[in-house]
Write the structure tokens for this entry.
Amino acid sequence: MHAEEREKLILDAMVASGFITYRDLEARLDASPATIRRDLTRLEAAGRIVRVHGGAKLVPQESPETGPLHLAGTPFDQAITQNLAAKQAIGRVAATLCEPGEGIMVDGGSTTLQMCPHLEGMDLQVLTNSLHIVNALLAQPGTRVLVPSGSVFREQNIILAPAGEDSMPRFHAPKLFMGAAAVGPQGVMQADVVLVAAERRLIDRAEQVILMVDSSKFHSSSGAIVCGLDEVDIVITDEGVAPAMRENLEKAGVKVLIAR
């Protein structure tokens, strides 16, 4: 196996959590420990990873020396204007799934933001990484808001921890509401691996994963896979979803709600 092939396998193996142990690498790669160390040295020199005790973690963002933090994908200010009516309808339906007084997690996004006005008076605890969502909920006296620690990514206005680090409060919730860059037969995708790592940490804390996506997000696309369709419990979308895609979702055991 060539060095480039091994490096790709190393990076692919780190997408889900942003971190991998040396032991896992030795099990995955047909290479000696010395060869793996050389691969990691090259990846670290290229700024793709940082070696830490027991393994390595991804470095998906720029360093403070090279410039501000950015994420791949559509900037929030642009995304919020796209398919707004559908997103607002999806937000209304999502809010109906919440029970008064419960704790929920709401991942940052232009669609998940639309459920916030409908949470007024429900006295929820909301864990979110989105400053837009924090701002929308602050006007609700009965809503308690929790945020993780990390760096602020200005274009999306979200707080994300470095890959491989867990900065979430001790919080377990019956429901996670999240969006996606794309959804296809291969699963739920995001444009940036740092988003994948953050969303995996949320998924691990949730009993139920509720995906909020307008119908334009259903297409075959390249991207980092957050989770398979079998990990999603409910999809809320609009009437534009193709019948074939809806059938694929339901075959995977996903409940589909159409927002009108």
User: Anything to note?
Assistant: The radius of gyration is 19 Å. Confidence is low (pLDDT under 50) at residues 61-68. The first strand starts at residue 19 and ends at 21.
